[in-house]
Amino acid sequence: MERLTVVGAGGLGRTVADTAELVGMWASIQFVDDRYPALNSTLHWPVVNTVKGWLESSETGEQFVVAIGENSTRLNYLRRLLRAGMVPVSIVHPKAEFSRYAKLGVGSIVLGNAVVKIGSHLGQACIVNSTAAVGHDCMIGDAVHVGPGAKIAGDVSVGERSWIGIGACVRQSIRIGDLAVVGAGAVVVKDVRNNALVKGVPAREG
Which residue from 118, 86, 123, 120 is spatially nearest to 108, judged by alpha carbons? Predict the structure, then answer.
């Protein structure tokens, strides 16, 4: 069994480390975080270096997952570490329902009691948070975060680095653009353009 390095020692990072322990594929888990050395541990896990310091002191081929909530930052770190020869892993909580006919991009995370249905495709560095649901035949772009309890119906596409807020609902066959934000509790019944912020019931810009 190998060691897993989690990039980012905040709340999401601890959640991902907890999930990785439940998965049971790694002998040990450590963090790297740019607050090191002021931050040298989180709960029982060690914070061993900054990201740059870890890359300079480690051999290529080490397994990692980026657990940073901000979508663009998470994707940028994933790409940077891939170029450096590190090996990204995807993590699916044992209590998540992930169809064997769905696809999961490298570096993506599916947390407890989340659901991803048949025919759906998640890109790189995605997060499907606790109790969120992605319906059948959805296309979820790179570095999308589907927040806790959010529900995406079937045949929806979500562009890269978009955010679906906690408890939001997206009607079937909706198209959401890149870098869009769907506010907490919003109900999306119309397509959402790139870079838009929508909120409310029904969801509107502004």
Answer: 123
